[in-house]
Amino acid sequence: MTDETDARAETTAGNQQTTLEAPPESAPESPLTERVEAILLIIDEPIALVALAAAVHAPVPAVRQVLEQLVEDYDGRGRGPRRGFELREVGGGWRLYVRDDHDDLVADFIGGQAPARLSQAALETLAVIAYKQPVTRGQVASIRAVNVDSVVRTLLARGLITELFADSETGAINYGTTDQLLQHLGINSIDDLPPISPLLDDGADGFDEGMIR
Question: N or C: which end of the chain has fewer CB within 10 A?
Fold first, then answer.
């Protein structure tokens, strides 16, 4: 009787030790649809299918199926209503866009925001875009030697620059200035901008002749 009791106690202790020493289970991975939407919400330029699949750690066919389902969902062809935004494939990549129906609404909202002075970084980025347009965000970053993602978003929100087109090979968005900028500057055309100063050195590679006066 004593031997059986001791054996049971040893077995129980062994099981407890095994339980305590077992490595903790990793948290379950979030659904693929949620991961895809999370990436789509933060990108500024269309993302290629392969790059998106790598970002969400999923096979390309599965991600393609999720994108097709999201397009139907956002367009109101699923169970829910049509959304105010849509998912488009542009220049070989995917990105969320405001629907054309709401362009005026968004423009009025942005135009009604309290005006604020642009930072020095925003002014420099705007100058590069104005003189080099059409130009990609990567090219602007190369010229300024700093990341310009947040600055470009600010200029877009202010209506001072716009997306012109996507590069057919890379999918990179090319930016240019808007009529609203011309109004702020009091000029009729980009051609009326003052010339690049020939007195400045060309330390900023890629900006041709240097910064503006």
Answer: N
